[in-house]
């Protein structure tokens, strides 16, 4: 069975997503019900909701919305990775409010579409260090050229668990293996960084990718981080750009068919349950 660490629910009646206007294939509702129906069929038994970069004034409303989904009977949702703005003066108060909410397991500030210098600001770094001593993880979503900046953040707070999203966002379609390969080997030297096996079907050619297209990128990630520091994520509905949830699950199963049962269990559920205290 699988713990999905990266579900996005899109409900445009409830929340505002300014970035969706630039991504027409995703600019519609993607409901929890639509996801859950397919997720149960492919063996997903628990899910963390990942923030969807909603409008800044709706960040806490998104967390409340996810909480309402969690309260549904037999909900797959077991926690939320909430959006945050470490570059803002109000972050400390925001963090204190989230500490009182057991739904929130961690945070993400999308960086791959933001100016490089955002994560280098002194307030951003001061606020990120506030996660030290808390239960919260921090997801890093960066481009390959930004991986050194992600390393700097991981070094800033060595006792914070960082999660590197989407195998470091490699450009699989163009075959741009460097500097991605070298940077992945380097960031993996940080024991407080775990890699998320997710997202890669959206970075390959949607018409022609196969399991073998994905293999060198996924296997390099696992080789760098090892089986105790990898988790799995669907990145639904972004994965629909490259085939969909069932296709990605099938591809993952094929990619790791040669791994041991213990290794697959770590990737698909055990590591996630340990990192986020999911029982």
Query: Counting H and I runs of at least 4 residues, what is the number of helices?
Result: 9
SS strand fraction: 5-15%
The secondary-structure element order is EHEHEHEHEHEHEHEHH
Q: C-alpha Rg, in Å?
A: 17 Å
- Give a count of the beta strands, DSSP E runs of length 2 or more: 8
Helix content: 25-40%
CATH architecture: Alpha-Beta Barrel
Q: Per the principal axes of the C-alpha atoms, what is the gross shape?
A: globular
Strand order of the largest sheet: 1-2-3-4-5-6-7-8
CATH-wise, what's the superfamily? Metal-dependent hydrolases
According to CATH, what is the class? Alpha Beta
Q: Helix/strand-derived class?
A: alpha/beta
The CATH topology corresponds to: TIM Barrel
């Amino acid at each position: 069975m699988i713990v999905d660490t990266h579900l996005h629910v899109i409900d445009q009646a409830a929340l505002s997503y300014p970035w969706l206007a630039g991504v027409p294939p995703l600019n519609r509702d993607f409901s929890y019900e639509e996801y859950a129906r397919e997720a149960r069929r492919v063996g997903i038994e628990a899910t963390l909701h990942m923030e969807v970069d909603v409008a800044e004034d709706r960040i806490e409303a998104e967390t409340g919305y996810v909480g309402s989904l969690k309260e549904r009977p037999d909900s797959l949702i077991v926690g939320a990775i909430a959006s945050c703005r470490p570059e803002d003066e109000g972050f400390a108060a925001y963090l204190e409010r989230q500490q009182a909410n057991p739904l929130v397991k961690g945070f993400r500030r999308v960086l791959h579409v933001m100016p490089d210098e955002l994560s280098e600001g002194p307030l951003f770094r001061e606020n990120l260090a506030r996660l030290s001593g808390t239960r919260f993880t921090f997801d890093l979503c960066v481009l390959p050229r930004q991986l050194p900046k992600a390393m700097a953040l991981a070094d800033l707070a060595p006792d914070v668990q960082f999660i590197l999203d989407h195998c470091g966002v490699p450009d699989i379609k163009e075959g741009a293996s460097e500097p991605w390969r070298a940077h992945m080997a380097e960031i993996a030297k940080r024991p407080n960084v775990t890699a998320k096996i997710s997202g890669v079907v959206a970075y390959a050619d949607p018409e022609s990718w196969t399991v073998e297209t994905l293999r060198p990128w996924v296997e390099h990630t696992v080789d760098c981080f090892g089986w105790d520091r990898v988790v799995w994520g669907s990145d639904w509905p972004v994965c629909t750009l490259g085939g969909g949830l069932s296709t990605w699950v099938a591809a993952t199963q094929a990619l790791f068919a040669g791994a041991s049962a213990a290794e697959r269990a770590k990737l698909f559920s055990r590591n996630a349950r340990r990192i986020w205290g999911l029982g």
